[in-house]
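Aim 2 progress. For TonB-dependent receptor domain-containing protein, the working sequence is reproduced below.
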Amino acid sequence: MKKIYLVILLTIVTATISVAQRVTISGSIRDASSNEALIGANVYDRVSQKGAVSNQFGFYSYTTTLDSVNLYFSYVGYQSQRLTISVSQDTTINVQLMPDGLLEEVVVSAENMDPIQEVTRMGTINIPIRQIKELPALMGEVDVFKVLQLLPGVQSGTEGASGLYVRGGGPDQNLILLDGVPIYNASHLFGFFSVFNADAINNVELIKGGFPSRYGGRLSSVIDVTMKEGNMKEFKGEGSIGLIASKITLEGPIVKDKTSFIISARRTYLDILARPIIAAATSGNETVGYYFYDLNGKVNHIVNDKNRIYLSVYSGDDKAYARYKNFYVNNDIRSDYEDEFGLKWGNFITALRWNNVINSRLFANYTFTYSRYHFDLFNDYQEKQTGPGVNETRFYSEKYFSGIRDWASKADFEFIPNPDHYIRFGGNVILHKFSPGVYASKSNQREGNQTLGSDELNSTEYSLYAEDDFNITSRLKANVGMHYSGFLTSGQNYNSLQPRVTARYLINESTSIKGSYVTMAQFIHLLTNAGLGLPTDLWVPATQQIGPQKAQQAALGFFKSLKGIELSAEAYYKTMDGLIEYRDGATYLNIDQDWQQKVAVGEGKSYGLELLAQKKIGKVSGWIGYTWSNTTRRFDEINFGEWFPYKYDRRHDISIALTHDWKDNKDFSLVWVYGTGNAVSLPTHRYEGAESSMWGGGWRPEIQYYESRNNFRNRAYHRLDLSFSWWKDTRWGQRKWTLGIYNAYNRLNPFFMDLSYDRSGNRKIVQYSLFPVIPSFAYTFKF
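Predicted structure tokens for this construct:
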């Protein structure tokens, strides 16, 4: 470890010394029509054949010893811009690129985008927001996670669910960031949709291997989602009306070219549509409903050329409920009663960011955040009695709740001394408050309230990191870094030192090989219940009894650019330790038992091969992906201590996602997926137990024997989705219609399997399916 630290220190010192007598050109790269930051825009100098790339806030820095440069600024979907300038001192150049609509077919070169074979990173995929919006959507509702599930190495849990299982990991092992703030439950509608409204998003990046040192706290992936900043030029809006939800987004300047805002809202209306039907069927006595909503907001203020402030907020909730009300009369006393039960869950996050350009080579970002995730299961009963001499109200309520609250601060620095080095360093502190499952009840008919369950737990998580993305030779480039993290909880202090290294070697101008080795640590766990994706999962910290999760991952890949198509093949091997899972028979409802007594601790491993061909520009764009993988887990107290397939282990996965802009105002898209069946546990033998006296005697209970956990496989899963859109420009903006078909050939895919009996009394396995063919429509407008 000391040698690694010494290498990083010498690299930074050498890079700093080499700054002497150099001139730096820096600034921002933004959308000319909205002033929105262009993340990952390319800067290329044809004279020196070196360049730079813009960061998450559009900032770039390019240092040269030449007195004249010929710079190309480019970004996918935008018109490139060329500047030839003479420089004798540090210069600030802010560039605005014009959206190009549909790019013609071009030969990809270093001038117009950052080729996949050039960059050091591997296991990282960016998907243009335009492609996300054009692909077919379940019930017409565009969903970022549904698109991420189509990528190699990423799997969904069950039919329709929005959970992500990346390279053999669980959903708790994904670091899901919205403007830099972790989101603990990213699901709506019991897991069928995610919390991300595509209309409010600027950029989506998935990292599933070769993790840079600046990320930490999870084992399997990083999903980094950046919200739009708001249009600084003019007021604009867009919205849509679909089968189950509608949404609207408004953005514009508060002070032109100085301060902007964006606000985006989305809500389902299943409860509103069903209300009159249910009321008519129950004489108005019953109400059953479900809805979710999202609200995104952001304010962006330019203080001066070197300072910018952002304030972003997200709030979202789901609620499923049933209400029953009625009355009865007894001895002239009328009793009106109302009973409501249901569940609700949701997130609230807010982030305050300060961008500071310290100098032309050093950029800083300071972030202060608060986030909250909660889950409530509730039942409220109220009865009011009125009559001669009687006016009395009785109430009773019970509630099961869990959640997590975070307060955090973070400082990130980017130092770019010259085109051969890109140095990042920083640190953060998070104060966690866990509520891992509490039952509370109260009534005005008894004294005092009743509370059962685990006590709140307070923990502190902290980290420091440093990394350098540097050119060793003209062909060899590496990203070397270190991530240190610690976790203080219940008198226990865990520490973890995590070296990270990724290297790229250019075979020729269009081809490279890459390799990476990373270690990761995760100090929080998710206790997951099998089932329909109900948000009853509990977030709990590492304790003196239950340690952190740890992982190591090695990967090797081949990358090539060929006529506008990015080709990649990555093989990986990952080991995981400190995994937890409920013991057989234990659930979150055992509130009288400490959660630490209900879990088993084990290990896991996953290895596989991922192939991807991706095309981001042209009339036809999209990707074709294939994954071969094997994921197993082992717990001493489960499955007799033997290795067993992970529930979401799939040997083969194929995905095809294509869009075709075949006319100026029409496009067509399709998605086809295939996956071998998930692993399920089914009994292999059954026995009759001892005779019981229950129900008058003579009854013998059935005992089922499971040979091993996850010993059977579901049938293979496959489906075809289609979408067709056409739009028309109007005097006030644009209107667009989209027709879609989910599961076009009506494949009855397995949702879960169960044991039943046929008419002859013989045992059989029954498959239950969820979605048949589902047509959808959406009307979208912009102004």
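The chain has two domains: 2-97, 124-678+714-782. This observation will guide construct design in the next reporting period.
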